[in-house]
Design goal:
30% of the residues lie in helices and 20% in strands. It has helices at 29-43, 72-79, 98-103, 111-121, 135-144, 174-184, and strands at 2-6, 13-17, 45-47, 54-56, 82-86, 93-97, 129-130, 133-134, 152-156, 169-173. By secondary structure, the protein is of the alpha+beta class. The strands form 5 sheets. A two-stranded antiparallel ribbon has the order 1-2. Strands 3-4 form a two-stranded antiparallel ribbon. A hairpin with a 2-residue loop joins strand 7 (129-130) and strand 8 (133-134). The protein contains 6 helices and 10 strands, in the order E-E-H-E-E-H-E-E-H-H-E-E-H-E-E-H. The protein has 4 domains: 2-43, no CATH class; 45-79, no CATH class; 82-121, no CATH class; 136-184, no CATH class. The longest helix has 15 residues, at 29-43.
């Protein structure tokens, strides 16, 4: 049986055998090609996650990407979105990039709060930092009135690294410091250092 139907692209009437009628019917290959092109174009339509407008994407990485943007400017703007969070030391709110907040374990409003937090967290530690310098080195510099040279080290006379009394600190060269600690290490019959076993 021959039926008269309309083309789903140009609406022109044409005749087709009943057994060949489908959900979508086109009068020519040209109309089929145009319909397919439009169908693929609609599949590429995305909504920008930053500004909300529709745009035609290239469908690259469509299964991998979580966000889609109409331009590089929208992409940068979305990534740089800032949020208000409290400083981990003083509690003052700061306006910071969301990506930085996610990436950092702690967030501070300024360098001073960061230093105060570190000093508090490491209070009593053997290598406590004060003003960017290990505590016992800073105390030694105050004692001699100048900055220590790169080859100068601080030795704790009583071997207690928690005793930072100025009288307990001795400034030595790296070589002299190594010799003192080498004498304190146990040696075997051949003069080789004996490795200490870690406590179980």
């Amino acid at each position: 049986m021959i039926l008269t139907i309309k083309c789903d692209w140009c609406n022109q009437e044409f005749k087709r055998n009943k057994s060949h009628v489908k959900n979508k019917n086109y009068c020519s290959r040209a109309c089929l090609g145009k319909a397919n092109a439009e169908r693929f174009r609609l599949k590429r339509i995305k909504i920008c996650d930053n500004c909300g407008i529709e745009f035609e994407g290239n469908n690259r990485h469509k299964n991998r990407n979580k966000h889609f943007f109409c331009s590089q400017e929208c992409s940068n703007s979305f990534k740089e979105q800032k949020i208000y969070i409290p400083c981990d030391w003083c509690g003052k709110y700061l306006y910071k990039k969301r990506s930085d907040v996610i990436r950092n374990k702690h967030n501070f409003c300024d360098w001073g709060c960061y230093i105060d937090f570190i000093n508090f967290a490491n209070a009593g530690a053997t290598n406590q930092i004060v003003a960017g310098t290990v505590l016992y080195r800073k105390l030694s510099e105050i004692k001699i009135g100048r900055k220590l040279e790169s080859n100068e080290e601080v030795h704790h006379i009583d071997d207690n690294h928690l005793n930072n009394n100025i009288d307990n600190l001795q400034i030595l060269t790296a070589s002299e410091h190594s010799k003192i600690h080498a004498k304190q290490k146990a040696r075997d019959a051949y003069g080789r250092f004996i490795k200490e076993k870690p406590n179980a």
